[in-house]
Amino acid sequence: MKKKSNNNSTYVSTDLIDRKWIDVNIPCRTACPIMTDIPGYIQAIMEGDYETAFRINRMDNVLPGVLGRICNRPCEPVCRHGRDGLGDPVSICFLKRSAADFGMRNFKPDIKPIDKKVCIIGGGPAGLTAANDLALKGYRVTILEQFDRPGGMLSCGIPQFRLPYDVVAGDVKSITDLGVEIKTGYRVNNEAEIEKLKKEYDAVLLAGGCQVAKVVDIPGIESPGVYWGLDFMIAANRGSPGIGNSLVDSSMKKVVVTGGGFTAVDCARMAYRLGAKEVALAYRRTKDDMYVTANELEAMEAEGIQLAFLVSPVGIESKEGRVTGISFEHNRIDKSDRTITPIAGSEFLMEADSVIFAIGQEAEEEIIKEGSGKPADNFFVAGDFRSGASTVIEAAADGRKAGKEIHRFLSHSEGYRDVVTIFEVKETGRERAYDFIDRQPMDETPLHERRIKDKEVGLGFSKEKSLIEARRCYLCHYNFQIDIDRCIYCLACIDVMPLDCIMMSKDIRVDKDGNLHHIKTERWDEMQAITIDNDKCIRCGNCVRACPVDCISISKYTLAPHAWGSVEAAAPEAKKESFK
C-alpha cells in the first residue's frame, strides 16, 4: 500500500517491493543489525547539518556517542565504495561519532503516557534500547542495574581510552530524560526474584549481559597471577587494589593475554597502560579471524604489543606461588572447514608474571531456567541472555526486537509492518569528483601519551574532515529510474555516465520481490528499454541533467523509525520537532 502525505512529493508505503528495494540497494543499512539510516545521516553531514545527522542516529540506534566509538562496523565491509577499483569503504562509524560530537541536542518528544509498568533487568545496550523504545510509546520503565553506574559493560568493562564515561553518561541521559528510571546497585540473583518482579510489573525483560568467564581447564590455571579478562578489565577500570590503582603496577612486568576479541585487545592495551614492560597477545586462530576492527589492531601494534597466532594454551608454569610462564602448542587450520588441529610436539613456553584469559563470557545460568519466560507469562529475554555474547550493536538491535515484543504483548496488537518513506527529489548533491577523495584518517593521541590510562586514543574527525569523508558516500538511498514511456532512446544518458551503470536492455522482467532482471544488449533491434543499474550508479546526477525529455526521476527511500506498523507515524514532518 502506498499513501501520499501532505507533501505531494512524499509517499509512505508498506509494499514489500519498496521494502525489498532498501534491502537490495542500501547494503550498509541492511548489514547494520539495527538498520541505521546510514546514507541519511552521512548526507546530512555532507550538507553541514550535524543536528539532523545526530537526530537520525538517535532515533535509529539510540546510542550514537557510544556506537560512534566502539561499534564493530558490520556496515563498512559491505560499503560499495570498498569494492575492487573503487577505493576504501566510507568511515561510517567515525561519521556517526561526528554526528554526536557536533550535533547532539536534547531529545524532547511529546509522549502520551500509558498506565503500564515495565521492568528491565540490565542497563546495557539491550536494556537501554528496549527502555528507550518503550518509553517513547508511553510506558513507565524502570531499569535495574547491578553496577553502581548505568551502562552495564559500556561503563564497567570497556576502557576509557576507547569509550570515556562521559560519552556513556550522555547517551544514557537522553534515555532517562524520557522518564526512564534507573536503579543502580540492584542485582537480581535468581528466578524467585524474577517471579516477584513479574507480579509487580506488567512486563519484565531480562537483558543482562554475558559476564561469566568461559572455563579453561589446563594445569596451573588457579595460580596467582592468572586473571579472567572481564574481571581484569572491571578491576582495572575501577582501580581495584593491585590492578590499576597507579600508572605502574609493580606486579605486572611481562603479561600474556589469550583471546581474539575486543576484550582480549582491551586487556592487552590496558596492561600496557598499567606499566607492563612486555605485553603479548596469543590467539588460537589467525589475525584475519580476530573479531576486532582494523584500527584496534593497528593501535595495539603501535603500542608495541606482540602478537602470536595459531597457538593454544596448554598449561601455566609457576614458581614459589607465582606465575612464571604459559605453555602453548601450535595449531594448524583446515582450509575447508576452518577446524583447528594441534600440532604434536610443538609446545613452547612464553615467560610471564601475569596471564589474562579473555576467551569469551557466558550468561549466568542460575538466574533463569532453560525454556522459561514465555510472553504469556509477561516475561521476556533480550541481548546476551537470548543469543549469547554479542556486539554492542547486535545487543541494541535485540533490545529493539524485545521492545516490540513487549509492546505487542501489552497493547494486544497483532504485529508490525515496515513503513517506507519515499521522497521525490531533483538532485542528490553528489558530484563525480567525490569518487576520488581518499579515506580520511582520524587524529589520535600520540604514542608518548598513551601510558595515561584513561586518555582517549581516537580523537574524532574535525568538522572539515567529516565533511570531506561524507562526500565519499555513494548515497545509495537514491533510486534512479527511467520512464520508458517518455524515453526517446537518444542515449544522452549513456554518453555522460562515468561508470557502466546505464545500458540498452532486453528480456526485462520484474520478479515477485520487485527485483528488476534484464540482459544488456548492444543491438538496437533487441533493445526493449534503457535501464539504470542502481548497484553501479554513483548518484552523480549526470544522466538527469543530460536527458532532453526529463524522463529520469530520483526518489529517496528510507525506513520510518519507530513506526511499528503505523503508516501515519511515518510522516517525516513530525520528526524534527522532537529535538530542541
Note down, in words, how this protein is organized:
By secondary structure, the protein is of the alpha/beta class. The chain folds into four domains: 2-107 and 419-475 and 566-578, Fumarate Reductase Iron-sulfur Protein, Chain B, domain 2, CATH 1.10.1060; 117-159 and 167-211 and 378-411, 3-Layer(bba) Sandwich (FAD/NAD(P)-binding domain), CATH 3.50.50.60; 213-362, FAD/NAD(P)-binding domain, CATH 3.50.50; 479-559, Alpha-Beta Plaits (2-Layer Sandwich). It has 18 helices and 24 strands. The strands form six sheets. A five-stranded antiparallel β-sheet has the order 1-2-19-24-20. A five-stranded parallel β-sheet has the order 5-4-3-6-18, sandwiched between helices. A five-stranded parallel β-sheet has the order 8-16-9-10-11. Helix 3 (38-46) packs across helix 6. The protein is globular.
Text of the CATH class of the largest domain: Mainly Alpha
Q: Could you say which structural class the secondary elements and strand pairing correspond to? A: alpha/beta
Which percent bin holds the helix content? Answer: 25-40%
- In whole angstroms, the N-to-C terminal distance is 33 Å
Helix run count: 18
Instruction: Supply the number of structural domains.
Output: 4
What is the architecture of the largest domain at the second tier of CATH?
Orthogonal Bundle
Shape label:
globular
